[in-house]
Amino acid sequence: MRDLKLDRRRFLQGSGGLLLGTLLFGSGPIALLAPSRTWALEMNTLDSATGSRLLLVIRRIFPHDTMEDAVYAFSVKALDEKASQDPSVADTLKKGLADLDQRAGGDWSKLPEDKQVGFLKDIQSDPFFALVRGVSVNSLYSNELAYKHFGYEGASFPKGGYIHRGFNDLKWLPNPPVDASPNVPA
């Protein structure tokens, strides 16, 4: 019988990789939902290093200073799923990251944020950038954790619509003057 012992290294080699992180903003809405301050996201095609670097690219394209990496990780997962379905996607992602390193004259991810953004602006018409931006914009802004971060309650239809739930709760604007409203017979 073969030895079935599976150590961490062999597990990670066989499963693409893991994207790991820790929640930094302990009192935010996302931390309140999380069962733990640490998180992990399994990837099937991309390795951990590629996932971490893509997370940074996505964070630079869609900067939200107080949004947790855990929210951005869903976009990395979406890119990993796309790469699982189409090997050319994984190739585009790896070549794009290598191109950033080449342009930076070393490790792009070690540069200051303004330099990273500058290199991303230089490649914004490249297929790599278009792929990352296109997949990320959908996965980043359409998940429950992002909703919590921005204070969005989500779709209203499943909750009965807006007429009886939030239609008239405009608390951030002053009430309009009476003469601004049309006369409607009672």
Question: Your description of this structure?
Answer:
The structure is a single chain. This protein has 186 residues and is mainly alpha-helical. The chain has one domain (8-180). 50% of the residues lie in helices and 6% in strands. It is built from eight helices and two strands; from the N terminus they run αβαβαααααα. It has helices at 8-14, 29-33, 48-61, 69-85, 87-104, 113-122, 127-141, 144-150, and strands at residues 17-22, 38-43. The model is unreliable at 1-15 (pLDDT under 50). This is Tat (Twin-arginine translocation) pathway signal sequence. It comes from Pseudomonas abietaniphila.
Main attributes of the structure:
8 helices; mainly alpha; 2 strands; 186 residues
How would a crystallographer describe the biggest sheet?
Answer: 2 strands, antiparallel
Helix content: 40-55%
Overall residue-averaged pLDDT value = 80
Q: For the largest sheet, list the strands in their spatial order.
A: 1-2
Name the poorly predicted regions.
1-15
Number of strands: 2
Task: Output the radius of gyration.
Answer: 22 Å
Q: Which oligomerization state do the chains in this entry correspond to? A: single chain
Which range does the strand content fall in? 5-15%
Number of domains: 1
Structural class: mainly alpha
Instruction: Give the end-to-end Cα distance, rounded to a whole number of Å.
Output: 86 Å
Return the string of H and E elements. HEHEHHHHHH
Which of globular, elongated, flat, extended, rod-shaped describes the shape? Answer: elongated
Total count of helical runs of at least 4 residues: 8
InterPro entries: TAT_signal
Protein name: Tat (Twin-arginine translocation) pathway signal sequence
